Automatic annotation (TrEMBL):
<protein>
    <recommendedName>
        <fullName>Acyl-CoA reductase</fullName>
        <ecNumber>1.2.1.50</ecNumber>
    </recommendedName>
</protein>
<keyword id="KW-0521">NADP</keyword>
<dbReference type="GO" id="GO:0003995">
    <property type="term" value="F:acyl-CoA dehydrogenase activity"/>
</dbReference>
<dbReference type="InterPro" id="IPR016162">
    <property type="entry name" value="Ald_DH_N"/>
</dbReference>
<comment type="similarity">
    <text>Belongs to the LuxC family.</text>
</comment>
<dbReference type="GO" id="GO:0008218">
    <property type="term" value="P:bioluminescence"/>
</dbReference>
<comment type="pathway">
    <text>Lipid metabolism; fatty acid reduction for biolumincescence.</text>
</comment>
<dbReference type="GO" id="GO:0050062">
    <property type="term" value="F:long-chain-fatty-acyl-CoA reductase activity"/>
</dbReference>
<keyword id="KW-0560">Oxidoreductase</keyword>
<comment type="function">
    <text>LuxC is the fatty acid reductase enzyme responsible for synthesis of the aldehyde substrate for the luminescent reaction catalyzed by luciferase.</text>
</comment>
<dbReference type="Pfam" id="PF05893">
    <property type="entry name" value="LuxC"/>
</dbReference>
<dbReference type="InterPro" id="IPR016161">
    <property type="entry name" value="Ald_DH/histidinol_DH"/>
</dbReference>
<keyword id="KW-0455">Luminescence</keyword>
<dbReference type="InterPro" id="IPR016163">
    <property type="entry name" value="Ald_DH_C"/>
</dbReference>
<dbReference type="InterPro" id="IPR008670">
    <property type="entry name" value="CoA_reduct_LuxC"/>
</dbReference>
Length: 451
């Protein structure tokens, strides 16, 4: 399969889960020309009414919600991501619903305070206020959760910036497909949006892009995040960082163990735990029947797997899960002499490690593809201290069942930026902050007029 991005002339052959891809890569001189082209359009793009962009996004979202249209893309994505078509469909449709006009309108109002503030000057107590785009935005997109792509693009378009998207080598297809669908509806989208792929090992390309960008949004891991942050500091480009994050659930109390287990299982399945808001550990208060809850989670994962199955295109994924399962049993059960039990499928469909102590941080990084730790606690201070000592730099979402508002206050002071009910961790409701910030707020700047 040949994937031709907005610009590029050299081909790179890549095999992902036995799909042969021919990626058309951009070289540094071609990227420079594309940056110049986008920059010349900033004034023209500024004149596009927000409502026109929302209409475009709404049409595109509805297009992808038509399964006759999205079916072929889902099949390709399923293969590249090593996820079942059922799971890709579930994740994709949730994202496309977010693009519908009523939801985008809510995002603008909640993040910027006024729907019209990007189009006109708004009266205030001191005069008038307006939001202006930063100019040229570079989106550095990772491949762990493909659904961030349309949201990053949408925010860049709504904020009236011109946007350069660099796709991930791990998942190089969806940004290209989504961009093409926008172009089908409105070919002029090319004036303000460009999608490309280039060799990330060529560090000079990143430097060239950041040097010529007004704003950078980064979705990715720690190493790439550090590289981007250093470049933004050097060239005074505004940075919006969505780096490596870890999320978890706290079951402090529950009225129904089976219902809570059902909701936890929903959270675990989405994105095969590769997204930053997917839980990797479940803390359970000892006053809850922890063993019964753990068994119930296992039963629910078994049931959910029948509805949203796992895909085994890559044998290494299956082998690694089984190895990690055995490693944790030996490490905690024998070497550390802790009370460890494993609740799992016979194959690698799901793994629950019940441990009466908290796991080491390094083992939290094993929690992908339906692999979860369940750990009981006596006092909420145990959870707080563990998170502070192991996860503080990576905090994002906390699924919470209970009514201890003081605990919620402490955890959000520590760095948790989203608190949800179990079962709602994957639901990024319109207007919700992301990593403690509003993207539209960061992609624009405030202009105050006191005339």
């Amino acid at each position: 399969m040949k994937i031709e991005y907005t610009c590029g002339s050299s081909a790179l052959l890549k095999n992902i889960n036995d799909i042969n891809l021919e990626l058309i890569c951009a070289e540094e001189d071609e990227i420079v020309n594309e940056l110049k082209r986008l920059k010349t359009n900033t004034s023209k793009v500024h004149e596009i009414p927000v409502n026109d962009t929302l209409e475009l996004l709404d049409k595109c979202g509805r297009l992808w919600l038509n399964r006759d249209y999205s079916r072929k893309h889902i099949e390709i994505l399923s293969h590249i991501l090593n996820q079942s078509k059922e799971l890709v469909t579930y994740e994709l449709e949730s994202t496309m619903h977010a693009l519908l006009k009523e939801n985008m309108k809510t995002i603008i109002e909640d993040e910027l305070g006024n729907y019209d503030i990007l189009d006109k000057w708004i009266d205030t107590n001191y005069g008038k206020v307006h939001r202006q785009p930063r100019g040229l935005m570079f989106h550095n997109v990772s491949g762990n959760a493909f659904v961030v792509i349309p949201m990053s693009m949408a925010m860049g378009l709504i904020s009236k910036n011109c946007n350069l998207i660099k796709v991930s080598g791990d998942e190089p297809y969806f940004a290209y497909a989504f961009y093409n669908s926008l172009c089908e509806i409105d070919p002029t989208i090319k004036d303000r949006l460009s999608v490309m792929y280039f060799n990330s090992e060529k560090s000079s390309i990143y430097e060239t892009i950041v040097k010529n960008s007004d704003c950078v949004i980064h979705w990715g891991g720690e190493h790439s995040g550090r590289v981007i942050a250093e470049l933004c500091a050097r060239y005074n480009a505004h940075l919006i960082m969505h780096g490596a994050k870890i999320s978890f659930e706290v079951i402090d109390d529950t009225e129904n163990i089976n219902s809570t287990a059902q909701e936890i299982a929903k959270d675990i399945v989405c994105w095969e735990q590769k997204a930053c808001l997917s839980p990797r550990i479940v803390f359970v208060n000892n006053k809850v029947n922890t063993k019964l809850l753990t068994k119930a989670i296992g039963e629910e994962l078994k049931r959910v797997t029948e509805i949203i199955p796992k895909t085994y295109l890559n044998p290494w994924t299956s082998m690694k899960i089984i190895q990690d399962r055995q490693y944790c049993l030996l490490k905690y059960g024998i070497k550390k002499n802790q009370k460890v039990e494993i609740y799992s499928s016979y194959n690698s469909d799901y793994t629950i490690i019940f441990n009466d102590k908290m796991p080491d941080k390094e083992d939290i990084d094993r929690c992908f593809n339906r692999f979860i730790f369940v750990c009981p606690y006596e006092s909420s201070d145990e959870v707080y201290n563990y998170v502070e000592n192991n996860l503080k730099e990576y905090l994002q979402t906390m699924g919470y069942s209970g009514n201890d508002q003081q605990f919620i206050e402490k955890m959000t002071l520590l760095g948790v930026s989203i608190v949800t009910k179990p079962g709602e961790m994957p639901l990024h409701r319109p207007g919700t902050s992301h990593d403690g910030i509003y993207n539209l707020n960061e992609m624009t700047y405030v202009v105050s007029s006191q005339l």
